[in-house]
């Protein structure tokens, strides 16, 4: 018998999740605080149920994509969750996930915490990454439906906080690079050149950057700090240069001084002749 899926939350992301499932022929019910957002989905075959308790009761898999965990608690307050497979796809912290897993399990649900590392227009492809963690029963029950939303499903085991930790760590890596890019873009712009060419060049060397990140991750794991190709001394010098360039070109130096301070801490701790992985010791 076909599983009945309820999608709670029809914002930019939730609406896409509901649409992809409906288009694949799944039996989809939708719920949203403001009813108007359900229209485009009922138009393609989804059902709208205004009463949230009834909507949950009539479905097997409950996908949640609301603003956050607080909104989720508000929406599901007093609703029976007994025997339901719940997949929380709103973004939160590992602690949010642990607390919700405990609370919803106590209410009789199988709870899977999920995190989507993609924008709405990137959903539904082989490459779309979704991290999941929590109840193995919920994972087994929801996997097929989730695969419609993203082909790169990574189940990280039973600890409910794992998916969110991966998500936030990945966002930290991504936006860290993005802020570095914006700072670089200001440098290019202030020298009268085209930012678009910088973007193209960074895209083209992305595999090399990715390999450097991977190597540093391996070094940290293996406590490998010695025999650097580029010593921390040399890397730190990069930020002394960017700080000086910022002054010369009258640019905001917030990014550069933040990084300079971090590197200097590493040097003060005596890691000047070690690899960049040694900065992890400073951060700890
Ligand atoms: P939107 O702002 O577009 O939608 C927010 C949704 O939450 C709406 O359905 C809104 O209802 C609902 N909502 C907010 N507060 C409440 C409340 N107190 N009670 C009931 N419903 C509430 O956000 P997105 O769809 O973009 O994001 C949803 C989640 O998905 C977030 O956690 C986000 O981090 C995550 N996500 C989003 C990505 C993106 O690129 N957009 C990427 C990856 C994850 P209403 O329509 O009535 O206002």
What oligomeric state is this?
Answer: single chain
CATH superfamily of the largest domain: NAD(P)-binding Rossmann-like Domain
Provide the spatial order of strands within the biggest beta sheet. Answer: 3-2-1-4-5-6-7-8
Low-confidence stretches: none
How would a crystallographer describe the biggest sheet?
A: 8 strands, mixed
Give the total of beta strands: 8
> Radius of gyration from the CA trace?
23 Å
CATH class category of the largest domain: Alpha Beta
How far is it from the N-terminal to the C-terminal residue, by CA?
51 Å
Coarse morphology: elongated
β-sheet strand percentage: 5-15%
Determine the CATH topology of the largest domain. Rossmann fold
**What's the helix-strand series?**
EHEHEHEHEHEEHEHHHHHH
Number of separate domains: 2
Q: Determine the number of helices (DSSP H or I, runs of at least 4 residues).
A: 12
Average pLDDT figure = 97
Estimated helix fraction: 40-55%
Explain the overall architecture.
One of its GO terms (molecular function) is nucleosome binding. InterPro entries: 6PGD_dom2 (IPR013328), 6PGDH_NADP-bd (IPR006115), HIBADH-related (IPR015815), HIBADH-related_NP60_sf (IPR051265), NAD(P)-bd_dom_sf (IPR036291), RedAm-like_C (IPR048666). It holds the Pfam family NAD_binding_2. Keywords: Membrane, Oxidoreductase, Transmembrane, Transmembrane helix. With 284 residues, this protein is α/β, with parallel strands linked by helices. The chain has two domains: 4-156, NAD(P)-binding Rossmann-like Domain (Rossmann fold, 3-Layer(aba) Sandwich), CATH 3.40.50; 166-283, N-(1-d-carboxylethyl)-l-norvaline Dehydrogenase, domain 2. 52% of the residues lie in helices and 13% in strands. It is built from twelve helices and eight strands. The chain has an eight-stranded mixed sheet, sandwiched between helices. Strand 5, helix 5 (94-106) and strand 6 (110-116) form a beta-alpha-beta unit. The longest helix has 29 residues, at 162-190. The chain is elongated and about 65 Å long. The mean pLDDT is 97. The site of NADPH dihydro-nicotinamide-adenine-dinucleotide phosphate (NDP) has 22 residues, from helix 1 and helix 4.
């Amino acid at each position: 018998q076909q599983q009945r899926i309820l999608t709670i939350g029809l914002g930019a992301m939730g609406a896409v999740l509901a649409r992809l499932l409906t288009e694949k022929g799944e039996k989809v019910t939708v719920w949203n605080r403001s009813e108007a957002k359900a229209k485009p989905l009922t138009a393609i075959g989804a059902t709208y149920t205004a009463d949230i308790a009834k909507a949950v009761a009539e479905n097997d898999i409950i996908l949640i994509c609301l603003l956050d965990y607080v909104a989720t608690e508000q929406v599901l307050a007093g609703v029976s969750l007994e025997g339901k497979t719940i997949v929380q796809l709103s973004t939160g912290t590992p602690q949010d996930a642990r607390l919700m897993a405990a609370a919803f399990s106590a209410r009789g649900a199988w709870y899977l915490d999920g995190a989507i590392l993609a924008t709405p227009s990137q959903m539904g492809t082989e490459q779309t990454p979704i991290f999941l963690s929590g109840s193995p029963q919920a994972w087994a029950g929801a996997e097929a439906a989730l695969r419609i939303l993203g082909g790169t499903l990574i189940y990280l085991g039973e600890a409910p906080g794992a998916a969110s930790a991966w998500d936030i760590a990945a966002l930290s890596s991504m936006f860290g690079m993005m802020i570095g890019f914006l700072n670089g873009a200001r440098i290019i712009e202030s020298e009268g050149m085209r930012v678009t060419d910088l973007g193209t060049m960074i895209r083209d060397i992305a595999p090399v950057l990715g390999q450097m990140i991977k190597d540093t991750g391996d070094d940290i794991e293996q406590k490998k700090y010695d025999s650097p190709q580029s010593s921390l001394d040399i890397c730190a010098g990069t930020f002394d240069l960017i700080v000086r360039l910022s002054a010369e070109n009258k640019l905001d130096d917030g990014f550069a001084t933040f990084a300079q301070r971090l590197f200097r801490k590493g040097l003060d701790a005596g890691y000047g002749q070690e690899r960049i992985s040694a900065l992890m010791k400073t951060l700890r």
